From TrEMBL:
Cited Gene3D superfamilies: MFS general substrate transporter like domains
Cited InterPro entries: MFS, MFS_dom, MFS_Efflux_Transporters, MFS_trans_sf
Molecular function terms, GO-annotated: transmembrane transporter activity
SUPFAM superfamilies associated with the record: MFS general substrate transporter
GO cellular component assignments: plasma membrane
Protein location: Cell membrane
Membrane-related topology note: Multi-pass membrane protein
Pfam families per the UniProt record, alphabetical: MFS_1
Name of this chain's protein: MFS transporter
Stretches assigned to the Major facilitator superfamily (MFS) profile domain: 18-393
Keywords: Cell membrane, Membrane, Transmembrane, Transmembrane helix
Top-level taxonomy: Bacteria, Bacillati, Actinomycetota, Actinomycetes, Micrococcales
Length: 393
């Protein structure tokens, strides 16, 4: 079987192998980014730092992405797309390996920062790649499939790796993920056809308006992720404080993730028909879930139900914003991918930092209310920005 099949655009079915490889790679990329979330208490206990300091492992990773996504995308526009994608997967492998064997928190943070550099480039390349594998008429479906890998990473990758880390130790979880990333390098090399490089932003009539719409979508993306990760970074801490035993954190997150797949399915089923209504409903569910989490905390039963509602809403969010951004046509797919990646990680890193400040100040019980308020700001922007989030595609 040739390592680099001849690139010919066609249907989603014709590009199935390449799209499957991108989806798996995207799943592992998001799992790598989010892996510390479910293991924060265990990591902090072993390396001798507090939960709020350990949460900076998410912050440093996210801020590397936020700072470097666009510059790296623009500076590598002429490079081989396949070569760049494989390089990022190798970097993920090395990052997870360094974290698995890190003797102290400083080395651990350095390993995470290295992974953040890879992540800064990965999504701009993968999103652009998906759009170039198929003819324009099939771009939406191709992007939905690849974005589903990101959503699945949020809703399944974290709980699965948390369960593994709880059973075998957090270092083992990172070690196993390193091995899986290495295997994915081989899979992508075999299945993914080569495509041409990036290009420049869209020009022509209406370019300024399209870019403004893209800016609104990107900003809203950052605000929503800011609210989500103010809480989600410390979800394991919330669950433990509600009386859940450590061994139960992974299974609970897995259950919440499974519910999140319902949100992903809802988004995929409705984005091509009712995109505005879809984003409004999903964000509303996230807000209701977070408020319910704050009201019921620390009663374990209420926390579990509220977390399920929250997870169901957020399961479709990644697909919603990626699709909305692509449909603005405000830039090339690679640049759009970089902007969505950067703004999401501004939200992830900023949310982790805000959450750490709330944890160290007002206390754990205020996390859900803070997150809900920020997501509400995002919803208000959506309601007012009818051109950026139109009723129909």
């Amino acid at each position: 079987m040739p390592i680099a099949p001849v690139w010919r655009t066609g249907t989603v079915r014709a590009a199935a192998g390449g799209l499957a490889a991108l989806t798996v790679a995207t799943f592992l990329a998001v799992t790598t980014e989010m892996l510390p979330v479910g293991l924060l208490p265990a990591i902090g206990a072993e390396v001798g730092v507090s939960d709020s300091i350990t949460g900076l492992l998410v912050t440093v990773y996210a801020f590397m992405v936020a700072a470097l996504a666009l510059p790296l995308t623009l500076s590598t526009a002429r490079f081989s797309r396949k070569g760049l994608l494989l390089a990022t997967l190798v970097a993920y492998t090395l990052s997870n390996l360094v974290v698995a064997v890190a003797p102290n928190f400083a080395v651990l943070a350095a390993g995470r920062a290295f992974g953040g550099i890879a992540h800064a480039l990965f999504f701009s390349v993968s999103i652009g790649y998906a759009s170039r594998l198929v003819q324009p008429a099939f771009t939406g479906r191709a992007l939905a499939l690849v974005t589903a890998g990101a959503s699945a990473g949020f809703v399944l990758g974290v709980p699965l790796s948390t369960s593994l880390g709880t059973a075998l130790g957090w270092r083992a979880a990172f070690g196993v993920l390193a091995v899986v990333c290495a295997l994915t390098v081989v899979i992508v090399a075999l299945l993914l056809p080569a495509v041409p490089g990036g290009g420049t932003d869209h020009k022509g009539e209406g370019a300024g308006s399209r870019r403004m719409r893209l800016a609104v979508v990107s900003t809203t993306n950052a605000v929503v992720y800011l609210g989500q990760f103010t809480v989600y970074t410390f979800v394991s801490v919330l669950l433990l404080a509600s009386g859940l035993p450590p061994a139960g954190v992974g299974p609970v997150l897995l259950g919440v993730g499974a519910v999140g797949l319902a949100g992903l399915w809802f988004a995929g089923s409705n984005l091509d028909h009712r995109p505005r209504a879809t984003v409004v409903l999903l964000l509303s569910v996230v807000i209701v879930g977070l408020i319910a989490l704050g009201v019921t905390f620390p009663a374990l039963g209420g926390v579990l139900v509220a977390s399920a509602v929250w997870g169901a809403g957020f399961g479709g969010v990644a697909s919603v914003f990626q699709t909305a951004a692509i449909r603005t046509r405000g830039a090339t797919p690679e640049v759009i991918g970089a902007l969505v990646n950067a703004t999401a990680n501004i939200g992830i890193g900023g949310g982790a930092a805000i959450g750490a400040a709330v944890l160290a100040g007002p206390g754990l019980g205020w996390l859900p209310f803070t997150g809900a308020a920020l997501v509400l700001v995002g919803l208000i922007i959506v309601l007012g920005a009818r051109q950026s989030f139109p009723r129909s595609p």
